[in-house]
Amino acid sequence: IRCWSNIPFITMPLSRAHGKSFAHRSELKHAKRIVVKLGSAVVTRGDECGLALGRLASIVEQVSMLQNQGREMMIVTSGAVAFGKQRLRHEILLSQSVRQALHSGQSQLKDMAIPVLEARACAAAGQSGLMALYEAMFTQYSICAAQILVTNLDFHDEQKRRNLNGTLHELLRMNIVPIINTNDAVVPPPEPNSDLQGVNVISVKDNDSLAARLAVEMKTDLLIVLSDVEGLFDSPPGSDDAKLIDIFYPGDQQSVTFGTKSRVGMGGMEAKVKAALWALQGGTSVVIANGTHPKISGHVITDIVEGKKVGTFFSEVKPAGPTVEQQAEMARAGGRTLAALQPEQRAEIIYRLADLLTDQREDILLANKKDLEEAENKGRLALPLLKRLSLSTSKLNSLAIGLRQIAASSQDSVGRVIRRTRIAKDLDLEQVTVPIGVLLVIFESRPDCLPQVSALAIASGNGLLLKGGKEAAHSNQILHHLTQEALSIHGVRDAVQLVNTREEVEDLCRLDKLIDLIIPRGSSQLVRNIQKAAKGIPVMGHSEGICHVYVDTDASVEKVTRIIRDSKCEYPAACNALETLLIHRDLLRTPLFDQIIDMLRVEQVKIHAGPKFASYLTFSPSEVKSLRTEYGDLECCIEVVDSVQEAVEHIHKYGSSHTDVIITENEKSAEFFLQHVDSACVFWNASTRFSDGYRFGLGAEVGISTSRIHARGPVGIEGLLTTKWLLRGNNHVVSDFSEHGSMKYLHESLPLPQRNAS
């Protein structure tokens, strides 16, 4: 009698025509028929005696949800032996305790020995209880489950195979979830081993090939193999250099070193890979993932079906370019080489990029025209996003000027000494600026962001991963090509990478071992989603740009309309545009107030009235739905306050700590406002639109940060640097500075080296 693993993997089932598996994870959401294989390590508890009930309930919930979506779900499960072992041990202990209590007294109970339990007996005792548990759990979701027990011989008898196939199809037709397991009560035992203490284990590695066999027989779209490891690694998990393989291709086996099997079962990763490749050959997509991790097991199956980057995905289609993980590693290596260049060399790269923006203007605008035409034809982009998507000659000229500013100001950014201390004689400490590492910048509808951010990353010696919106694909492609052309003059082409694969933003945010900082550039919803998705990676940015302008009683008539017009109308889609206009109560029904309203009407700005403002009017504009609204268009809210103090309180309650302005000729009121408003940028008699890296003289910005650590406001080169400490000694040891040691701490501040005059 042969075991499952001896079934030839090159033999295709007669009833299965050669299909085509999904090429990309994003296509898995189209999977209709799905097999979920639950390994012994997933189903059993950590003590290997009994079932992991909470984990199993979570899996049933996910399978039920997918079943209720109209998918056809099947489960190949282990666990009968472990469940039976628990029941039999309980019965034996109970029986022994009664006998010993009658004949030997209670004092002998602790010396009871549990005999070796035969695996087939465990399976027989556990199979009915396991199925009863599944039935009870699925009943909670109004789903019926049916048990099917198979043996190896069932696949060698053509009639039995057809019967099995017909039974499964009929169950699926009736919206019943088949639960398939090997009939371990009658399967011949393998060679004795000590895999489970006290049990000669029935081979459960067979469930891997059983699941693959059933998946192909049933023409399944997706096979999910859940184990106790995250997926397939290029070397045994736990070893120093082990890396999770995101996508595994046929023929990659030579690059993988297989380790030992899991704590339970006979399946090992090598058996899973063989089964997965066989299923893939038969047209079924496969994902191997962790079903035991408490943080992800509650949604691992649904995450896989949604196309998220979970576990190892088996695909027959190799992408044309590198994976995003490879791109991140290339960016890190390129960034380190970039940081090692002389400042003048980094500046040369940025100057070259600035020249390319003007020299290749026609090609850039042609690519941008394609993006605009596609966006307009699809009709998916709102007008503010279309404006951000658009490039022009003047925009490119401004970009080039900004890049040259960055190049000129970046001469001493990396490696600058910011503190020197003499710790003791011949022991000097320095704190110097260094790059953060690898930056991930995610941006929407703003192709001009690409050269700006690239220049800042180059100037600060950081590796860079760029993920742009698909609406700007043509523009981003040519701008990235020009960036790499500029980088090539000093051999650091790989330092800036553009992610062109179908990576979801949420998946990128999980690369905590490859990315050091995430900078989102886009809508408030995008920023919030990234902040929520980022796992272990800091996010720098702002979720909203709710900027205020407060018009004080002592405001200049000449300044008010100019500043408000510029703040709201110059570029209403910008994050630093005015969204809420605060008016002092004494200015209502004055000529100045009328001028403000007339100007906004002329500029076709839609006005929303705040609650207090609406209460002063007989016929008011539409009342605002929320005072925390970022319109991003020719709309704004007007609200009334009684004092500069109330204006500050309103900003703190409803603002986003971005940019806020006071218009007044009263210096005392202005200073109160400047000192008390807790925002990244606070201005007096100046437009909110000045909150910008280029206008601040930073050359450009990677974004405007409203966080309270590291960097705040428009973030230029300085915000992309961190520091490290350099200690230069001469045979110094800490014990010399003890109470009876020969040396004493000096802690003298030393002068800093002269900065580059340029």
Secondary structure layout:
Blueprint: E1 33-38, H1 40-43, H2 53-68, E2 72-77, H3 80-103, H4 119-139, E3 145-150, H5 158-173, E4 177-182, H6 206-217, E5 222-227, E6 247-248, H7 268-281, E7 285-290, H8 300-305, E8 312-314, H9 324-340, H10 343-359, H11 361-378, H12 383-389, H13 393-409, E9 417-424, E10 427-435, E11 438-443, H14 449-460, E12 463-468, H15 473-487, E13 496-498, H16 505-508, E14 517-521, H17 524-533, E15 547-551, H18 557-569, E16 578-584, H19 591-602, E17 606-609, H20 611-615, E18 635-641, H21 644-654, E19 659-663, H22 667-676, E20 681-684, E21 703-705, E22 713-715, E23 721-728, E24 748-749
Parallel strand pairs: 1-2, 1-5, 2-4, 3-4, 5-7, 6-8, 11-12, 11-14, 12-13, 15-16, 15-19, 16-18, 17-18, 19-20
Antiparallel strand pairs: 7-8, 9-10, 9-24, 10-23, 21-22
GO molecular function: ATP binding; glutamate 5-kinase activity; glutamate-5-semialdehyde dehydrogenase activity
Function: Bifunctional enzyme that converts glutamate to glutamate 5-semialdehyde, an intermediate in the biosynthesis of proline, ornithine and arginine.
Family: In the N-terminal section; belongs to the glutamate 5-kinase family.
